[in-house]
Design goal:
alpha/beta; 55% helix; disordered C terminus; five-stranded parallel beta sheet
C-alpha cells in the first residue's frame, strides 16, 4: 500500500521515536504530519524504555544520534544482533561522516539533519515501503522454496513407487509367466521324447525354440524392471549392463569400475545403476557416438559415476527444452539420495557425472545447501 500524501486514506504508521528532547519530538511529529503521513508516535529516551517498547509492533523507528549514555548507532547494532528488522531512520542535530557511513552499513534506512526536516516524510515513507517490499519478497522466496521442496518430495515418492511397481511386475513375470513357460517347456520336451511322427517332432522343436526365446525375453524384462544383478554389487551390475549394451548396439564402452565391496547406503546402488542405464540409452538414441567411457569411483566420502561419449554433444538449447524430462528425471532420481547430476557437452561429446555423498557429514552439508 502506498503512503503518499495524495492517498485519500493513508494508513496509520506507528513510529517509535528515540529522542531525549520533547520539543524535537513535537517538531518531528508535526513535520511528518505536514508531509501527509498519519502517524502515531511514542517517545522513549532510555535503553530500558526502548527494550519495553520493542515488545510492541512498530512500522518504523526514528532515532536521534546522540542520547544520554548511548547513541542511535548502538541501538541499531543491538537491533541487528537481536534480529529485529524495523526501518531505522536517524535524525540528528549533527552527525559525522564516519558515523553516518557506519549507520548505513549497519542497516539504517537513511539519516537526516534536524535543520533539514523537509526530507523526513518522504524518507520515512520510502523506508517503510522498502521494508514491506523486502518482507513480501522473503515470503515469496520462502513459499517458492516450500513449493520446490514439496515437488522434490513428490518426485522422490513417485520414483520410489515406480521402483516398487517394477519389482512387483518382475515378481509376477517370474512367478506366473516364467513358471508357465517352464511348464510348457517340460511338456514339449515330454512330447518330443514320445512322439513317433517326424513332422510332429519338428513342430515340437520349433515350439521349444519359441518357448526358450520367450523365457529369455522374460528374464531380460525382469532384469530391466528389477536388476537382481545388483545383489552382486554395483560394479558387477554395471559391468553386466555394459556387456549387454555393447552386444546390443555395437558401441564400445571402456569401463573403469572401482571395487565397491564397501556397503553403500540404501538406494544408492539402484540410483547409480538407473542413471547409467538411462545415460547409455540416451547415447545410443541421440548421440551418434562410437565410444563411451564409464568411470566409477568411491573416495573422499562420495560415489562418483562419470559417463562420457564422443558423440555430437549437448547444447544449452538441448538442456533447456521444455520437454527434456529425461534429464529432469535424472536430477530428481539423484536428489532422492542426496546426490546431484552435472551435464556438460560440446562438439567433442557429452559428459554426465553423478555425485552422491556417502558420509553423514557430507550428506547433511548437501541437505543444508539445498
Amino acid at each position: 500500500m502506498t503512503l503518499a500524501a495524495n492517498d485519500p486514506s493513508p494508513r496509520l504508521l506507528r513510529v517509535l521515536h528515540i529522542e531525549d528532547s520533547e520539543l524535537d519530538h513535537d517538531l518531528i511529529q508535526a513535520e511528518l504530519r505536514r508531509g501527509g503521513l498519519r502517524v502515531e508516535m511514542r517517545r522513549v529516551d532510555t535503553l530500558r524504555g526502548i527494550d519495553l517498547a520493542l515488545g510492541e509492533r512498530w512500522d518504523a523507528i526514528v532515532s536521534d544520534y546522540g542520547l544520554p549514555g548511548f547513541t542511535g548507532l548502538m541501538v541499531l547494532e543491538d537491533l541487528r544482533r537481536r534480529g529485529v528488522e524495523i526501518p531505522f531512520v536517524i535524525v540528528s542535530g549533527e552527525i559525522g561522516e564516519d558515523a553516518a557511513v557506519s549507520a548505513m552499513r549497519n542497516g539504517a534506512a537513511d539519516y537526516l539533519l534536524k535543520n533539514n526536516l523537509a526530507r523526513l516524510a518522504p524518507a520515512l515513507q520510502h523506508a517503510v515501503e522498502a521494508a514491506e517490499s523486502e518482507r513480501a519478497r522473503r515470503l515469496a522466496d520462502a513459499e517458492l522454496l516450500r513449493s520446490k521442496q514439496r515437488l522434490h518430495e513428490l518426485a522422490g515418492h513417485l520414483q520410489t513407487q515406480v521402483e516398487l511397481e517394477r519389482a512387483g511386475v518382475a515378481r509376477e513375470i517370474h512367478d506366473d509367466v516364467g513358471g508357465a513357460l517352464t511348464a510348457i517347456k517340460f511338456d514339449l520336451a515330454w512330447i518330443d521324447r514320445h512322439a513317433q511322427e517326424a513332422d510332429v517332432r519338428q513342430r515340437v522343436q520349433m515350439a521349444l525354440e519359441a518357448v526358450n526365446s520367450a523365457i529369455e525375453a522374460s528374464q531380460r524384462i525382469m532384469q530391466n524392471l528389477r536388476p537382481a544383478i545388483l545383489e552382486q554389487g554395483l560394479a558387477a551390475a554395471l559391468q553386466w549392463l555394459v556387456g549387454r549394451f555393447e552386444r546390443r548396439t555395437g558401441i564400445e564402452v571402456a569401463a573403469r569400475l572401482a571395487d565397491d565391496r564397501q556397503e553403500l547406503p540404501p538406494g544408492v546402488p539402484l540410483v547409480a545403476y538407473r542413471t547409467a542405464q538411462e545415460a547409455l540409452t540416451n547415447v545410443s538414441k541421440h548421440a551418434g557416438a562410437t565410444r563411451i567411457e564409464m568411470d566409477l569411483s568411491l573416495d573422499s566420502g562420495a560415489l562418483t559415476l562419470e559417463i562420457r561419449d564422443n558423440g555430437k554433444g549437448l547444447s544449452a538449447e538441448d538442456l533447456a527444452k521444455e520437454r527434456s524430462f529425461g534429464v529432469r528425471g535424472l536430477h530428481e532420481r539423484a536428489a532422492t539420495v542426496g546426490g546431484w547430476i552435472d551435464l556438460s557437452g560440446d562438439q567433442g561429446g557429452t559428459c554426465l557425472t553423478l555425485t552422491i555423498p556417502l558420509s553423514t557429514e557430507r550428506f547433511e552439508a548437501v541437505e543444508a545447501g539445498a
